[in-house]
Design a protein that fits this description.
CATH architecture: 3-Layer(aba) Sandwich
Number of strands: 6
Number of domains: 1
CATH class: Alpha Beta
Distance between the termini: 9 Å
Radius of gyration: 15 Å
Shape: globular
CATH superfamily: Flavodoxin domain
Helix content: 25-40%
CATH topology: Rossmann fold
Number of helices: 6
Structural class: alpha/beta
Length: 179
Amino acid sequence: MKKVLIISTSLRRNSNSDYIAREFERGAKDAGNEVEFISLIGKKIDFCIGCLSCQLTQECVIKDDANEIAEKVKNADVVVYATPVYYYEMSGQMKTLIDRMNCLFPSDYKFRDVYLLAASAEDEESAMDGAVKGVQGWVDCFEKATLAGVIRGTGLTETGEAKKDEEILKKAYEMGKSV
């Protein structure tokens, strides 16, 4: 049994990336894993100020919801980020959260596998390359971790459209079941 943390970074309720993440969650639970789902809706996450105090203390000097999320990321075996793709990149709130995970760099983090679940209105999978590269850059900073899988939900133009996309939901379920 693994401890799986899913972070849905869309601020839109019933978003496409959220539906994909929920299906990943269902698969991970069906496989017998302990799964926690966090939505960034209603969370206060400020920008990193670049002071690097966290490199000495392993804590951020900014007191907001990012600290609690960072602690959960640190103690998870598997971390899953779900994001809408805006302008060929991960959402701004996801990037802000990832920047605030700098306190984990010198820590004894547990996560080994990181997954990215992305949804975009664009039909081409290449529209998500920027988001994948951004997450890969974060993962590369953690030598014990790997980007274990990516789901690219394309052509999802309407809110909640992923709920009806059996193919993408099946991929998400199966990927979740395989963690």
